[in-house]
Amino acid sequence: MKKCEPPPYNYGDGLGWCTPYFYMCFNDECNLYVNGWNNLKENYNKVASYRCMCYPDNGVFEAMCVFSPDGLKGQIIEEH
User: Fold this and answer.
1) Could you name the domain of life of the organism this protein comes from (predicted)?
2) Where are the domains of the chain?
């Protein structure tokens, strides 16, 4: 998983992400990501998939929607 900045948009209640960063899986062979493309197309007629994310403060995992293979890669924080 890679450390990422939250995207500039909010989900749900609109209160923000409540964290300065989270961890995101960018493994393109992950079952969640691979199967997400067909699931979202078949059930919602959307071209999108999911990536696994984890909040650093509590270890909670969630699925975040991405709309292309490069989705959220611009949010990766380079650690030196």
Assistant:
1) Bacteria
2) 2-75
